[in-house]
Amino acid sequence: MIDEHEWQSVLQVVADGTFSQAAKHLFVSQPSLSQCIKKIENELGMQIFDRGKTPLQLTEAGRIYVETARQMQIIRKNLFRQINDIAELRSGSLTIGSSHTRSICLLTDALANFHQRYPAVQLTVVEGSTVRLQEHVLRGNVDFALLYEPLDSKLFNRVPIMQENIIMAVPFNHHLTKAFNNKQPIPYPKISFKFFQNEPYIALKSNRCMSVIYDELCKSTEVLPKVVFKADSILSAAELCAKGMGATMVTDMVIKRNLWSKTPFFFELEEKIKPRQLVAAYGVNQILSKAAQVFLQFLH
User: Fold this and answer.
1) Are residues 111 and 93 in the same domain?
2) Which residues constitute the domain of residue 177?
3) % of the chain surpassing 90 pLDDT
4) Rounded CA gap, 124 and 184, in Å?
5) Strand extents, DSSP E, the chain
6) How many CB atoms lie within 10 A of CB 278?
7) What is the sign of the dihedral through the CA atoms of 94, 97, 99 and 105?
8) Which of 10, 30, 42, 113 is the most exposed place for a label (fewest CB within 10 A)?
9) Cα–Cα distances in Å, from 281 out to 14, 34, 137?
10) Torsion 142-145-151-156 (CA) sign
11) Which residues contact 209 (CB under 8 A, 6 or more apart)?
């Protein structure tokens, strides 16, 4: 009842929302695609799409069909991953999900080194928010994604990558740095978050993990900095901090990369903040390909 050509056609229509657009991506005529969908619906005895709505909406039977088709898509990908493994990475592909910050700070060197060793493996990085990356994992769109704990063990398998410590960054000429005579002490001096009451602060947007840590810290200390900007990434927040716009929180992973035009001044917070555990996450029903397993070795 279900063959690959048919379920791939249904998934393309779902992705595009119209028969005409899906037909273009499938390189078939619209009447041919419509006939294919009609054949499936005749076999099921029920409609897959509610054609009275634009974009097309799935019926209840359609939702069941699409869920099954996506499972078959994952099974098919797993089959070819195993076959590609036999070739000992002489072919194949690897798709990694990551945030922009982790791509720059963690993946860049690993991608270059992996490509030098295995040039025939096609590498792709898909960037997005935490929510979007989790969706990519669960849909089987990526081999793994770099995410932070906690993750649902019923949905995700994880390989630990590293722990990241939270560090407070301020402009180098900030009034809180005057006691250090323009020199950065190592280890970083400690400071309480309470000193940042009403201080200019660069926060991260609410869809970023760091925003949760910031909110919890404000609540536990009853401190409210003066948010002057909401950045989309730790990298951009740190660069604005370095240019004198305000304080922000970064991680030691970002500090080690040292991408700033001018380095901020760093403090260790007196308040206890649990380190962030970065993992490579993949679906519980997904096989971690040999290419993925080898690549992860380049991250350590």
Assistant:
1) yes
2) 166-274
3) 71
4) 38
5) 49-50, 57-58, 93-98, 122-127, 144-148, 156-164, 166-170, 190-191, 200-204, 226-231, 248-251, 265-269, 276-283
6) 21
7) negative
8) 42
9) 26, 38, 7
10) positive
11) 130, 148, 276
Nearest partner of 103 among 297, 300, 299, judged by Cα: 299
Lowest mean pLDDT across 67-76, 167-176, 240-249: 67-76
The distance from CA 243 to its chain's CA centroid, rounded to whole angstroms, is: 27
> Looking up tokens 């006691």, which residue turns up?
179
- How many H-runs (helices) and E-runs (strands) does the chain carry? 11, 13
Q: Is 123:258 a contact under the CB 8 Å cutoff?
A: no
Residue 180 shares a structural domain with residue 269: yes
Q: Are 257 and 108 in contact (CB under 8 A)?
A: no
| Residue 183 belongs to domain with CATH number | 3.40.190.10
Q: Are 34 and 44 in contact (CB under 8 A)?
A: no
Taking only the tens place, the pLDDT of each residue in 85-108 is: 767 788 889 999 999 999 999 999
Q: Are residues 256 and 240 in the same domain?
A: yes
φ, ψ for residue 195, nearest 5 deg:
-70, -10
Q: For the sheet containing 166-170, what is the strand order?
A: 190-191, 265-269, 166-170, 248-251
pLDDT digits (tens, 9 = 90+) for 252-300: 999 998 888 789 999 999 999 999 999 999 999 998 988 999 999 999 7
Q: What is the pTM of this model?
A: 0.73
Tokens at 56, concatenated: 């097309």
CA nearest to 135, candidates 292, 281, 288, 291? 281
- Kindly state whether residues 142 and 290 are assigned to the same domain: yes
Number of structural domains (the chain) is: 3
DSSP letter for 41, please. Answer: H
Determine the straight-line distance between the first and last CA of the chain, rounded to whole angstroms: 46
